């Protein structure tokens, strides 16, 4: 897994949303489930 930051246009709301998205995918990764936000 590769996680890369991108901060253009970062607002409190977007940071909260991105944090929730990352946390959800990390939980899925640990559980062996398919990721929701996978880039190929």
TrEMBL record:
The lineage of its organism: Bacteria, Pseudomonadati, Pseudomonadota, Gammaproteobacteria, Enterobacterales. This is Putative D-3-phosphoglycerate dehydrogenase.
């Amino acid at each position: 897994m590769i996680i890369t930051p991108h901060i253009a246009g970062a607002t409190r709301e977007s940071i909260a949303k991105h944090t929730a998205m990352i946390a959800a995918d990390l939980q899925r990764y640990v559980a062996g489930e398919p990721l929701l936000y996978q880039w190929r």
